[in-house]
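Attaching the record inline, Q. Sequence:
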Amino acid sequence: MKLNRYLSLSTSCFLFGFISIGLASTAFAEISVQHYGFIKPTLTLSGNAASSFGNKNMNAATAAFPITNRLDERGRTNFNIGQSRYGMDIKANEQLTGRIELDFVNFDKASPSTAALPRVRIAKIEYSMSEGLTIMAGQDWDLFSPVNPHTFNFVGNYFQGGNSGFMRQQLNLKCRSESTEVAVGLGSPGNNNDRGDASVELTELPVLQARLTYLIDPKNKLGTGALYNRRGYILGNDVIRRSVLGYTLFADLEFSPMIQFRTEGYYGRNLNDSGALTLSNGNANQTQNEIGGYATTKINLDAKLSVFGGVGIAKVLNDEDVAISVVSSSAGITQSVNNSITENKQIKAGIAYKPQPELTTYIELARFITNYRAVGSDLAANNTAAELGMLLNF
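Structure, as predicted:
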């Protein structure tokens, strides 16, 4: 009797499991996954120390690093695959899609190999409620700064030198017609990589974003965007709120199959505190204002060969309020942190060649001219670097 009950129960469990697996397989069979990405080995040659978002390395250079000792005056090389990228586009049906994207950049590791770790760039779900109306939840690029300049330094980009927006965890709504797109969203008020809650979490209110884009045709667009938040700054046991805002004008144009042009201009107030990669940092006692912008172009000489380049600048308007974090000693030694930059200029130019459709080889030259606020007077730093790389797309 017990054996019969056992066999009956086992059979039921087997049938239930078999049916469940069958249903799950059927459900998953309806979901399509498209893999994409690229492998990007690079060699960077630099005349002296460079700064990657305040770190003294060449992983994703954004500025010149002030000379801290005689070693910082010396040339250096860096082999790196950190900007390689892997992603998946997930499609459940025509209405429901998702994307997850990783790279391997670690700004606190100058030349990692097996110590490189994956970094989440994008993780989002999109649901099309009707034709032209889409809701998105997850982590993606900022709404207010949508244009990507021409450069193979994909992570350093023109950040801290004219490009403003970055990744943000957010919820947004996009309404698109044939000639216009309107987008609005709520997002995280910043980033906090520490283990405990801080000013980001104590801000309480989300960032508000909006964007209006005029779609000239599928390859040409003009627009404007805005970001706003009342950021909480900690002062003792109190939280002092100050306005954080950004305003952009942007264009992404293709004058012909041969010539492409991309540009952005922006105004910001305490904008870096929102998670944007700019210069202005406020605190409980002060507000910083800044302006910036970039312009880049790419010229396709033929199907395989192209040249590209651009210029960018970011400047704090009230630089007397920038933190004094560069200190000079009698021996001429200086120390620096990221939030003491008052002005940063970037000049880039390069050439790319495609021996095969999936493979790109390139050389990109970069010049960084950076001013830091220091004791006594501002400190100027300059850096020239060359990046040689290959890009295998898949």
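The chain has a mean pLDDT of 90. The first strand starts at residue 32 and ends at 39.

More tomorrow.
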